[in-house]
Amino acid sequence: MPLLGPILLVADHDDYRLADALAGAGAFPLMDVSPVEAPAAIAVIDPCAVVIADAELTKSQADDIAAMLARTTESYAPLIARVRHAHDWSAAWTLPVAADASNAALVARLKSALRVRALHVKILRRAQGVAVDTSALSPTTGRDPLEEASVLVAGRGRSYPELSIAIGERVGLIGALSLEAVAGHLQTRDIDGIVIGEGFERALVEDLLDMLGADPRFRDLPIGVFGNVGEIDPERLPNLERLTSDYAEVVNRMLPLVRLHALGARFKRLAAALDARGVLDPETGLLTWDAFRRDLERAIGETGVRSGALAVARFAFESMDRRASADAARIVARLVRGVDFAARDDDGGIFVALAEADLIHARAVARRIASVLKHTVLTLGQEQMDPTFSLAAANSTDGADALLARLKPTGTVAAQ
Question: How many CB atoms lie within 10 A of CB 130?
Fold first, then answer.
């Protein structure tokens, strides 16, 4: 995609090579300013992106630029900065790039961030035609996307527990002891970042990176890699980071990229909800509660006419934080068949309507779903949760409220 501007390039000294790289990628207009001039320039220009080319910029200067950008722009505008140490920066939305990274890598990361901006602009435009509060769509207000993000950490040996703890203290963690497990999780889970630790053969890591780079679904996925791997085309994996054993630096380099990926995932769910005109819940991807009740009422009536079968399962959870609740709901959205539909209740319970299913078949399906949730969703503190489920079959005289009222927590069945 062309880098449509205006784009602000911030540096004390002219960086002609970076300017040429940005211009070659289609950046227009491209404007050069000094760090002192940058906040005022942002207020006047309202740029689509800001690139800080000077790795020696002071923390206070960087924070002033980030604060002005957040106040000025309605839609997300990426701030990318060359840094020597990511922990020197405090602005949560600053995307760090290693000081010695190539200009091609910086441009590729900017393109990746601008894809999130394009999605946000699209959402704001669509929201004008429906009753949606656009102030809630700002990335810098409301919940931090890290609260709903999950990072996949793979590794072996003594360093793996320490690495897992460093990341798990800040974001949802999914552990893997093999690269095959990494590939499996990517097909079944919503992942916002991968960290590949030590203990794997270089050839196997490079094969995994080749697979990720060849799949458009994972193009913008943040990936951190320990050890020496070959050169990777930054256009294919723009958010690839080469990491060292300084785990605090690992967290500070990876989390801004993970936050942005989680924000992009939030925007995609919101876009789908807007397309569905309020029928889908943008946090979970399931139906909203009102839409679920309407569809259930309709399904009960159609079942009575056809003398078919319809069952509803309710999955209940104890002591589950918000991130894990959303994670469980999104996993259910992946598991249900196209003819089934589901919603999350206010208390975090998940209702699934199973079409053409009697109680025997519904029990088997519910057990499988509960088992998957038990072994894949981790609660706060990375403890395995233990979901239970209850079942009810629709009668010809039922209404939706009567059917749902029979699904009480008593008499529930534990996952196996």
Answer: 10
Shared domain for 186 and 92, answered yes or no, is: no
Paired sense of beta strands 172-176 and 150-154, if any: parallel
- Assess if residue 281 is contained within a domain: no
Tell me, yes or no, whether 98 and 185 share the same domain: no
Q: Angle 260-264-265 (CA atoms, 0-180°, nearest 5)?
A: 120
Looking at the fold, whether 130 and 225 belong to one and the same domain comes out as no
Structural domain of residue 35, as residue ranges?
4-141
List, for residues 30-77, the tens digit of each pLDDT value.
899 998 999 999 999 999 999 999 877 777 888 888 889 988 888 899
* Calculated CA dihedral for residues 39, 43, 48, 49, nearest 10 degrees: 0
Q: CA–CA separation, 384 vs 331, rounded Å?
A: 15
- Euclidean distance between CA atoms 106 and 239, whole angstroms: 9
Is there a contact between 153 and 164 (Cβ–Cβ < 8 Å)? yes
- Residue at a domain's end among 105, 120, 141: 141
Q: Is residue 163 part of a domain?
A: yes
pLDDT in tens, 214-265: 999 999 999 999 988 888 899 999 999 998 878 888 888 999 999 999 999 9
The count of domains in the chain is 3
Which two tokens mark 328? 């469980």
Task: Report the C-alpha gap between 90 and 130 in whole angstroms.
Answer: 36
Distances (CA, A) of 156 to 248, 256, 352: 19, 25, 38
* Cβ–Cβ < 8 Å for 242, 225: yes
| pLDDT given for residue 234 in this prediction | 92
Domain at 366, CATH number: 3.30.70.270
CA nearest 111: which of 54, 191, 49?
A: 49
Q: 270: closest CA among 283, 279, 258, 261? A: 283
Confidence of residue 382 (pLDDT cuts 50, 70, 90): low
Residue 270 inside a domain? The answer is: no
- Go through the chain and tell me how many residues it has: 416
* Confidence band for 414, pLDDT divided at 50, 70 and 90: very low
Q: Alpha-carbon distance 249 to 403, whole Å?
A: 53
User: In whole angstroms, what separates CA 12 from the centre of its chain?
Assistant: 35
Question: For the domain that residue 197 is a member of, what is the CATH number?
Answer: 3.40.50.280
Q: CA-to-CA distance for 86 and 79, rounded, in angstroms?
A: 14
Q: Over pLDDT 90: what percentage of the chain?
A: 35
